Amino acid sequence: MDELIPQFAIEARELVQQASDDLLSLEANPRKRESLESAFRAFHTLKGSVGLFDFGPMLGLLHQAEDLLSQARVGKIVVDATLIDPLLAVIEWVDSSIDGISQTGRLSEAQEKQAPRLLRLLTGEMTEPDANAGADAPTPLPEWASALHEQADLVDAGGSLIAVRYEPHPECFFNGDDPLATISRLSDLRYLAFSLKEDPPLPQDYDPFRCNLLIEAISGGSLAEAEAVFRLIPDQVKIFTLPGATAKQASAGPEASPDRSTDRQSTTMRVDSARIDKLIEIAGELITAKNGLVTLAEEARGHGNDPLARRILANHHEIERLVASLYSAVTQARMIPLEHTFRRFPRLVRETSARLGKALDLIIEGETVEADREIVEELFEPLLHLIRNGLDHGIEPEADRLRQSKPPRGRLLLCARQRGDQIEIEVADDGSGMDPQRVRAAAIDRGLISQGQASALSDRDILQFVFAPGFSTASSVSDLSGRGVGLDAVRSSVKRLGGTLELQSTIGCGTSFVLKLPISFSMTQLIVVQVGDERYGIPISDVIETHKLAASAVQSIRAGKAFVLRNRTIPLLRLGELLQMQSPNSHSSDLKVLVVRAGEEEIGVSVDAIAERAETLTRPLAGLLHGVPGIAGTTLLGDGKVLLVLNMEELVQ
Amino acid sequence: MTVSLKTDTIILSGTCGAEEVETLVGYLESLPGLSVDLGAATAIHTALWQALMVFRPRMVGASMSSLVDNRLLLALNAFLDDTQEPPVKLAESSSSQ
Q1: A57 lies in a domain?
Q2: Would A339 be classed as within a structural domain?
């Protein structure tokens, strides 16, 4: 296979993303010149890359697409759905081809078969520009503007000029408008004229409070300024940039916000993430290695060499400080903006909403917030799930929305914020919300709680049952507007990343999910325990206290065991049993018990021995161990041994 | 009083809001042939400018207070000059009063 293929795949994916971002932005605002230019560049570069290989019809398709964009740039065709839809279809097709290409080095037959259909789409009828559409095209100067322009030439020529034709609404005085005062606010007013739109009426018909004026002006100010002056009455004014001395016609788009993604791309360097992972691994090992110095110092003290012990300890502190800053620097290197995941949603939402026939706006905020690469990438699935849920079951069809006096277009918010060393991501819809009564009924129905328990729980608590495994079944999809579908899976994948998922919902107003995640896989304090011959790590944050318990203090309660701690009965479990280990019947006199928190309750877990504490970097499980319940991750000990870190809450459930 | 009558001249002074247009139109309708002096006005609402365009009184005082855009007066005069023919019906009816 061509060794350039992997490089091609990386570049093509980026270009595909860029092109689809630009096309979506054009769809939202067809007059956005930068997006049109950027889309053209993306297609052009992509075509160039594809030209290096033989991917059958791909080159021709991209050529055709580029050609269309190039026609749109010069205004021969209009930027609208008939242009954007086929281009997006091509981009989606290229996107789905890349995986196959990077594996086999050529375009798969299945993909190739779709090419003629796409070519037909691309060669279909495009919209010809008509006189009053397509601001990107060099629109002919309206008659009024050219007449005005002649006047302006008398006054002054030079600089860019804005022609304004303002026909105030007849009732505008009642709105507090003062049209002549408004137009006087234009800076550098070169020409001003006003006249009566209709001949003056009979005196008895003359209404001094009806505005009957036509105001025309030419200003040397900017288009943006003129638009700002008339921002409240855009329907009553026509603003036009006169082709003056300045060659470049200012874009007439109302949104002149600079493209956010293009600003931050410089100063970056592409590094294989495996290299950074290696660095993190080494930094992690350094952290554990430096712990060895403490034992060394104690040994020195044991030999009566106190000065040496102190020097070792001083060194330990220095190394500790350096290692910590090394670690945080390398962790930083793994941070990428959430944009990497967020930018994939607009296209997906567009597709899904079109399929469901629901019009909605996806609002993305805070995409610049950064988090560990792995977290950002792993977030895609859970977020997609939540967004689909909101789209499918949250947002109502347009007719229903109008009946409830809601705006016809649904609103889906995807918003990220940084909160200390956590990121908070909110996925909210303004749809129908969840009905606690239905959730309550369904929870009782599934035997998750009893009638009595259900009525004792608040609405907020009862909603949490949508996260319960097995809560959702096929039959509940329509029952509960399908909210339960896979939400337990979402919650567990968020948990695996060390995060939490919360839910709030109000009937009729919508549902909001809040994900709280760590920004990176940070240092964890572990307590190392021994069961049989095995050692396990337990995050200290899970452990409330440790206890030495006489065997006689353990009482049998039905099938289980419990003990009394400060007048409270606490259930006792054996870690060996939880881990399904063959533990030798060690009926020693004393039990070592960790009191851990499991949800709202405290549970005692007995272990054979409690060993040292360790500060380590816990990484989520990958590969075969991925998704094993009860295991939070792995970590490396100072002696090179791998330690499994347990998730107590999952284990005791 | 921002719109006041002094011998044969209607004087606009200070800030003349939209509500003043009734006073102005009242004078212009009932006493044709009056002149209008804008020299002392600091702000004139569009409704008043429009009334001047409709009734076409003789304007006295070529300059305005610096607070009012002089171009507005220029534009008004340009309008009055361009449309020399006074609206016939209006002129007849106002002179008959």
Answers
A1: yes
A2: no
